[in-house]
């Protein structure tokens, strides 16, 4: 299989997608009723080992803010969160809440697409030619009632394990930020692991975090197309690496996980089309990896306990998340 962007035929996305899907497909690996895909690689023993990585008790939140100043621009009805107060301190002071003996309170509500900020893509999020994860017809999996088979609720107690940061920005650029359109290759990933040292080894059941520096630039310069625009990201040719390493999930500091513009003349998120419905890989996007990266660079340890449970939203094809890395 092709493992370098230079060997891709830019005019044949359908051919490359079909070949990669067939080569790396995990359908049936965990039984015909499977709902979790590669999250099956995380077992109790791996969680115990991951817990032992906590040495200092330092905690790092890896989420972007959920507010009206977010990156979304309305593409396909994706908007930033709308946060509305239902009860406030103003109401309490005005004695308009109707509670006895001076007690008052505040309540609020939020309306937002589930993938408007830091989030997981569930296995029902992407289809390959009408087929969802594990070979199921897409129209029998996700309907107007939600994801009836692989809803994100099935993953709520699964995404706890050994996290590994691959700081591609620092590894490949003096300023720590990859340029837009940079396609991260298998060679890049392997060289980063070698340079960062043994705590960066990647294998079965790991939760891999890839920092490109794209969010770093957005925080400094403004969004400027962060959501849906050009960005560094994983090359389509990393599909084989993502399959053979047997990682449980992967997340990046970018909107789309894979390089944008994509590596074909006419394609939209071709790596998604391989890894989610065929490999069964859970994908995270728009994570803030900067503080964690600073700490990892300072102490030379790039592994940690990572907990990143999605919200228990029945039938959702994705979920907001506040991931926490513990070192």
UniProtKB/TrEMBL annotation:
Q: According to its UniProt record, what is one Pfam family this protein matches?
A: Cyclase
Q: Per the UniProt entry, what are the Gene Ontology biological process annotations, in alphabetical order?
A: L-tryptophan catabolic process to kynurenine
Q: Which domain of life is it from?
A: Bacteria
List the Gene Ontology MF annotations in alphabetical order: arylformamidase activity
Q: Which PANTHER family match?
A: CYCLASE, PTHR34861
Protein name (database record)? Cyclase family protein
């Amino acid at each position: 299989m092709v493992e370098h962007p230079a060997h891709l035929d830019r005019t044949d996305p359908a051919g490359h997608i079909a070949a990669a899907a067939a080569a790396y497909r995990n359908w049936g690996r965990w039984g015909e009723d499977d709902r979790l895909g590669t999250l099956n690689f995380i077992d109790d023993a791996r969680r115990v080992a991951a817990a032992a990585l906590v040495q200092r008790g330092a905690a790092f939140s890896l989420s972007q803010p959920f507010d009206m100043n977010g990156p979304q621009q309305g593409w396909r009805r994706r908007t930033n969160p709308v946060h509305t107060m239902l009860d406030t301190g103003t109401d309490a002071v005005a004695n308009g809440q109707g509670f006895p003996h001076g007690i008052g309170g505040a309540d609020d509500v939020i309306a937002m697409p589930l993938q408007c900020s830091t989030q997981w893509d569930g296995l029902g999020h992407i289809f390959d030619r009408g087929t969802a994860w594990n070979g199921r017809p897409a129209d029998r999996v996700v309907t107007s009632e939600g994801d009836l088979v692989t809803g994100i609720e099935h993953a709520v107690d699964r995404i706890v394990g050994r996290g590994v940061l691959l700081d591609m920005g620092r590894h490949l650029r003096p300023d720590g930020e990859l340029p837009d359109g940079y396609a991260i290759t298998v060679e890049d990933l392997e060289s980063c692991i070698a340079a960062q040292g043994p705590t960066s080894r990647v294998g079965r059941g790991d939760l891999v975090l890839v920092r490109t520096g794209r969010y770093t630039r957005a925080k400094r310069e403004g969004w400027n197309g962060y959501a849906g625009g050009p960005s560094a990201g994983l090359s389509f040719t990393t599909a084989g690496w993502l399959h053979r390493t047997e990682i449980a999930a992967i997340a990046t500091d970018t909107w789309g996980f894979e390089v944008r513009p994509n590596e074909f003349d006419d394609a939209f998120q071709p790596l998604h089309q391989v890894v989610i419905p065929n490999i069964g890989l859970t994908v995270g996007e728009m994570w803030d990896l900067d503080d964690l990266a600073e700490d990892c660079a300072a102490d030379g340890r790039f592994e940690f306990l990572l907990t990143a449970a999605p919200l228990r939203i029945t039938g959702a094809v994705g979920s907001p998340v506040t991931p926490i890395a513990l070192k």
